[in-house]
Amino acid sequence: MTDTDPYLSVVVTSRNDDHGQTLLRRMQTFVNALIGQCKRHDLRAELVLVEWNPPPDRPRFIEALRWPEKTDPCQVRIIEVPPELHQRFRYSENLPLFQMIAKNVGIRRARGRFIVATNIDILLSDELMRALARGQLRRGRMYRIDRHDVMTDVPVFADVTEQLRYCETHLLRLNCREGTFELTPDGRRIVAAEDIADADMAVSFEKGWYPVERWHGEVYRWVGQDAVLAVPVPTGPPRALCLEIEPGPGVSNRPFELQARDTSGSRLGRVPPANLSDDAAPGWTVRALTTPYRGRRAADFLRSAHLEFSSHALLLGRRSGSPDAGGNRVGSSPFQDGRCVCPGEGRHCHARAGAALRARLAWL
Q1: Rounded to whole angstroms, how far apart are CA atoms 151 and 153?
Q2: Where are the domains of the chain?
Q3: Rounded to whole angstroms, what are the CA distances from 271 to 91, 189, 301, 311, 352?
Q4: What is the tens place of the pLDDT at every residue in 282-320?
């Protein structure tokens, strides 16, 4: 590899069959943005476009797309896999594009020091491009990043800044480590129709919270370390926010400390571990925490309170299948003998550090 070889190879595949009805528009947006960002950040890269099984009655991408006169520092290479090669594969009569095989074609022929295999309707953020341009990736590593799905009317021939600004205010969903979440256009996670909080509370389960799950008809969420709960400032007199928490595998199913921090990272207070023992009476053990702030600072805290479940908010409770205040059963735990027995065990539960939030989040 020489100094003139690209630092990054971006591998994509497609065929000009109007898949999704707006294929050329999406591809043009992707091409314009990638080349424009490579110029902006001086990122030495190459776009490897694998044109798989091109339709005989449609133009090739070299003709169907508008290419800038100069693409430096981003080279563009189009690799064509003709129909006769496609037909050698099983089920070729049913699948016109073998996407993963096609990406492997591009990866094997990539010249870059590092490779990203992606899709033809992706825009890479400026933050990511700046990080790539610093040239600090390490060999032998696999990197990941969250993906935001946005509305389709991204301005095709606008400046990259305008395209990304459109994306920031026209969001649909977030695909991240914790799962997939529907978003408001400005990026807040939407409370599910059946969730641990009512939609009219206007809270938002942000970073660190997992999607809604169910156990024997009961709704709960998993939550990881450094989780963020966005809470609107309630109107009227001060109110308490009730958050019910049951320890999960990430804390060895044992009591733990809960801390509340503001957006600067300053600790506002903490709830020490509940004093639970093996012979403790079934029911609730509760600790309460109130913010020491009043007025505007209290409002700022409530707008973006951080709940850190590393070992450490507002109200901590633990239950074990006991009746509630009205005598109703509140449900059984998915943990038995320190082991998770929920339907997700073996697939994702043991990878989730933190606690299981059971039942409801509510204003008192």
Answers
A1: 6
A2: 8-137, 191-363
A3: 59, 27, 17, 10, 22
A4: 333 334 444 444 444 444 433 333 333 322 223 322 333
